[in-house]
Design a protein that fits this description.
The protein has no helices and eight strands. A six-stranded antiparallel beta barrel has the order 3-4-5-8-7-6. Strands 1-2 form a two-stranded antiparallel sheet. The chain is 0% helix and 41% strand. With 115 residues, it is mainly β.
Length: 115
């Protein structure tokens, strides 16, 4: 998120500026989301090469960047591309935010009751 003209601007997953930290699979391999492809699948970059990840591994938010709390389910890996020093994964997201069927509200102050 950022501020423009004193208003908060949020980017949804399909936007390449939508970046947040995630954990992948049982090894909690770290990665950073980086927008989505034309099919709406989320791209995860900067996965260290030495972490073992597999197709069908679940992806969750890591909470390490203070954007989302740890443990929000993001999606499932559908493909993995190995680069010389890192890996890139494509995931099928759980939420279909552009379909207007699923909306989520995150309250960072867990002691307050939701609106």
């Amino acid at each position: 998120m950022l501020k423009q003209n004193n208003q908060t601007v949020s980017y949804l997953n399909p936007n390449p500026k939508c970046n947040y930290a995630v954990f992948i699979g049982k090894t909690n391999a770290p990665g950073i989301t980086s927008g989505a492809n034309k099919k709406g699948d989320i791209i995860i970059k900067y996965i260290p090469k030495w972490y073992m990840i597999n197709v069908d591994d679940e992806v969750i938010t890591s909470g390490m960047d203070d954007i989302f709390p740890k443990g929000i389910k993001v999606g499932i890996i559908t493909s993995i591309k190995e680069l010389p020093n890192t890996k890139i994964a494509t995931i099928k997201p759980y939420a279909k935010v552009l379909s207007k069927k699923n909306f989520y509200l995150i309250n960072k102050d867990f002691n307050k009751k939701p609106l």
